[in-house]
Design goal:
Strand content: 5-15%
Strand order of the largest sheet: 1-2-4-3
Radius of gyration: 21 Å
Structural class: alpha+beta
Number of strands: 4
CATH architecture: 3-Layer(aba) Sandwich
Helix content: 40-55%
Distance between the termini: 50 Å
CATH topology: NADH Oxidase
Bound molecules: flavin mononucleotide
CATH superfamily: NADH Oxidase
């Protein structure tokens, strides 16, 4: 395995950190790699917030579904899907005047632009993950930054065409985190198809999830399979319901 493959294959999410600062040089290296990520049309449809204020970290640890390790991470970056910068530039460039001379209506950022900006932001984020890993740091995505749209808009001063699509927390992993087992992945036959998409049948699902243990305990008495566990813990959980509400609110502002 070459070194890049080794970094990719050994990475795991890290949620506990040594009390060790990340030097300015290391931060700069990670940022350099982040900004070299591929970007749609070379537009760089994203911005990054480097969260340095401890009080703000503390708040995000609460608003992002109560995950205290966020507050303890020495480096916290919020990745924003950002069409505001381009739209403001168009306005500053009198694109409105150009459009009216040509009998065109000025196009506003739409859902497709949001999707593209989200792609850009997350692709850049993944460069940061890999760069950090290669420098001995661990990281963890925080998807819950998509929740609490109104609160995050206020806290982070976000205009309408900016949405926090992901947050990354970084730090040097503790020994326990280094020793922790890696997570498993589904067999590729359930994930990769030739040419056309294919829906899986019951038998395949049984094979896919068969080895997973059912949790026992309170609230799980009537649960009979892993699909039910995952529905309760993820898709139907409070954080997912809040994320749906929050993204719907954001879309209203984006579409206005
Ligand atoms: C989009 C996205 C959102 C995530 N959000 C969270 C999160 O809010 N909290 C957390 O602890 N882990 C989060 N994770 C990390 C996943 O739980 C982790 O990647 C997954 O369990 C696989 O483990 P591994 O990264 O160690 O291989 C997120 C990962 C992704 C890609």
């Amino acid at each position: 395995m070459n070194q890049v493959m080794e970094v990719l294959m050994k990475r795991k999410s890290v949620r506990a950190y040594e009390e060790r600062e990340i030097s300015a040089e290391v931060r700069a290296e990670i940022l350099k790699a982040t900004l070299r990520a591929p970007t749609a049309g070379n537009l760089m449809l994203y911005s990054i917030l480097d969260i340095t204020d401890q009080k703000l970290k503390d708040k995000l640890a609460v608003t992002c579904d109560h995950q205290p390790f966020i507050a303890r991470a020495p480096m916290v970056w919020v990745f924003l899907a950002d069409y505001q910068r381009w739209y403001d530039y168009f306005l500053a460039s009198d694109v409105e005047g150009l459009c009216s001379r040509r009998g065109l209506t000025l196009e506003k950022p739409s859902e497709s632009d949001l999707f593209l900006a989200c792609c850009d932001a997350l692709i850049a984020a993944q460069n940061a993950v890999i760069a950090a890993e290669s420098l001995g740091l661990g990281s963890c995505y925080i998807g819950d930054i998509m929740e609490q749209y109104e609160t995050h808009r206020e806290l982070l001063n976000l205009p309408p065409y900016v949405f926090p699509i992901g947050m990354l927390v970084f730090g040097y992993p503790t020994q326990q985190q280094k020793d922790r087992e890696m997570t498993t992945r589904f067999d590729e036959k359930f994930i990769v198809f030739k040419d056309c998409y294919r829906r899986l049948d019951k038998e395949e699902f049984d094979e896919m999830f068969g080895k997973r243990k059912l949790p026992k305990g309170k609230g799980m008495e009537d649960v009979t399979n892993f699909g039910q566990v995952m529905y309760l813990n993820k898709f139907g959980a409070d954080f997912s319901i809040e994320m749906r509400r929050s993204v719907r609110e954001m879309l209203k502002a984006w579409r206005k």
